[in-house]
Amino acid sequence: MMFKKGYNKPTTIEAILARCKDTIGGCIEFHGNRNNKNYGQVSLRGKRIGAHRAIWILKHGPLTRDQHVLHICDNPPCVNIDHLKLGSHKENMHDMCSKGRHMNGRRTECYNGHAFTPENTMYRGGKRRCRICWRAWRNAFERAKRQKNRLINNQRGE
Ligand SMILES: [Zn+2]
Ligand SMILES: [Zn+2]
User: Among 66, 88, 106, which residue terminates a domain?
Assistant: First the structure.
């Protein structure tokens, strides 16, 4: 006799990602079960844990009780491994406290005062970048390139 028990299927990274959606900000949001704090919930080896924590364990191996998987992006349902870091319970609490403004540690705005919202935050080389500033920088770069090309073309035209 065959028993088909859905919840006995092993939880894999692929299985979790199959229930996720990409966002503009680079977050991969879990759209399955969520708890009251908006964290994705999956069962891993018979235990119900956060989807972000499960992704971390599946990728990097088991965690101890006081190793917490924290979001660099402050987006609870996000399971993008690049947006996760390991921290202690204390750091977790600290992160939560500093969500306000200008508490030591995490900034909530870029140097030009743009808020680090999920939409306006991107991650390059493990660092948080402001999308508005990055776009401005890129535009300035493109403009400089066009100017240079125009100068070269003018010279040729002479
Ligand atoms: Zn994220
Ligand atoms: Zn900015």
Answer: 106
